[in-house]
Amino acid sequence: MATTDNEEDDYMSDAFLNTETVKDVRPGLLLTHEQQRLHNQMKKRKECQLTNKATGAKALEEQQRQEGLEKAIDSTNKGFSLLQKMGYKPGLGIGKNNSGIVEPIGIVLKTDRKGLGREAALKQVREMKKKIILSRLSAEPSVCEYRERRAQEASEKLDRSDLYRCQRVCRQMDLDQDILEPSEKFFWPVESSDVETDKPKQEEVEEAEDLMSLNEQLEILNFYLRRTYNYCVYCGIVFNDESDLMEECPGPNRQDH
Q: Three-state SS across the chain?
């Protein structure tokens, strides 16, 4: 039977259901598994394109930097031009007798956030530690030394408190500089989770680190904090620079304050 314009549609018929399904084109609605698969492929493709673009820009920057470092300095460089006006000839050493350097001082790119004085400070820390350990290994313990150590319990209590304060400050400052492990094991406070049940066998010099007193550990750690971060644990502040630390801080020891 043919339907007229005035007759209502049959909402239970297949023709009506199919028509409504086709018209359901809401934005973002994925109706089939194939559409979902194509959508995921397009999404991954866009992510790869963004990643490749970022990687390509970084590689191009690195390439241009390397080319710039390898390129010889010519007369377009103002400093090189001034040297030529003072009599310098390319290929010869600088100075009155041509005895100076021939090539410019190399450029070392700094890519981390560690302090500029940290490596130098750590080198001196290792030397101080080695000197103390070797001194302890070469000396024979005596009864007098034992008695003196027992008499210094009050002083060691203060040293333990100061050392713990330094360890907490050192850990926080190192973490702020993206240093995730202490340079020396006594630079950070020992957590309960760090204690191992079975201690692995160490070399004699490494085991001798435990022979260092609290005062000696405090001295080394205090030196590291002052040299690397311009921090005085007794003043309780970070100074602007090394000059400010030397002028404003009374000294590196508790007695100075």
A: CCCCCCCCCCCCCHHHHHHHHHHCCCCCCCCCHHHHHHHHHHHHHHHHHHHHHHHHHHHHHHHHHHHHHHCCCCCCCHHHHHHHHCCCCCCCCCCCCCCCCCCCCCCCCCCCCCCCCHHHHHHHHHHHHHHHHHHHHHCCCCHHHHHHHHHCHHHHHHHHHHHHHHHHHHHHHHHHCCCCCCCCHHHCCCCHHHCCCCCCCCCHHHHHHHHCCHHHHHHHHHHHHHHHHCEECCCCEECCCHHHHHHHCCCCCHHHC
Tokens of 31: 């109706």
Q: How far apart are CA 106 and CA 26, in angstroms?
A: 62
232 has which bridge partners?
Answer: 237
Tokens representing 82? 């001034």
**What's the CA gap between 106 and 6, in Å, rounded?**
91
Against a cut of 0.85, is the pTM above it? no
Q: Which pLDDT tens digit goes with each residue over 191-238?
A: 765 545 445 544 554 555 567 888 899 999 999 999 999 999 999 999
Radius of gyration, alpha carbons of the chain: 36
pLDDT in tens, 136-172: 777 666 667 777 777 777 888 888 899 999 999 999 9
Residue 168 one-letter amino acid: R
